[in-house]
Amino acid sequence: MQTLGEKVQELRNGMDISMRELARRTGISSSFMAEIESGRRYPKEAYLAAIAKELGVKVGELRKLDTRSSLEDLKRLVDRDPAWGTAFNRISSAATDGTLTPAALIKKLGPAK
Fold first, then answer.
1. What pLDDT digit, counting tens, does each position of 26-83 carry?
2. What is the distance between the alpha carbons of residues 3 and 99, in angstroms, rounded to a whole number?
3. Under DSSP, is residue 13 helix (H, G, I), strand (E, B) or coil?
4. At what angle do helices 45-55 and 19-26 cross, to 10 degrees?
5. Which residues contact 34 (CB under 8 A, 6 or more apart)?
6. What is the DSSP code string of 6-56?
7. CA 86, CA 92: separation in Å to the nearest integer?
8. Cβ atoms < 10 Å from Cβ of 31
């Protein structure tokens, strides 16, 4: 499945505009646009709408590429098994103090199924 960042990059390249130019047109910093395209960050709704407008697509086409779990999904998981709350707290603490990175966690978990 294509990610949001891949789709943005594909559409942007198809229009022959640079990432920096798309960032300028949408009011997003170049560094934030780079993080969006690399999949490290996901834009707020207003920025997503601006990106969609500049790329000539409906915002829903981009929104459907958001594969993050919703907060409600995570709450349901914790409600079913409170140990998940402890696990999320430990992950959050380690991320905050810099001892855990997303890449390290993904490596520890192994390949997605």
1. 999 999 999 999 988 899 999 999 999 999 999 999 999 987 777 888 889 999 999 9
2. 27
3. helix
4. 120
5. 19
6. HHHHHHHHHTT--HHHHHHHHT--HHHHHHHHHTS----HHHHHHHHHHHT
7. 10
8. 10
Q: Which amino acid is at 12?
A: R
Query: Which residues, including other chains, have CB under 8 Å from residue 42's CB and lie 6 or more apart?
Result: 4, 36, 66, 68
- What the chain holds in terms of domains, given with CATH numbers, is 4-63 (1.10.260.40), 71-109 (no CATH)
- Locus of tokens 């780079």: 34
For residues 37 and 9, give the distance between their C-alpha atoms in angstroms, rounded to a whole number.
6
**pLDDT digit string (tens) for 26-36?**
999 999 999 99
User: Tell me, what DSSP letter sits at residue 70?
Assistant: P
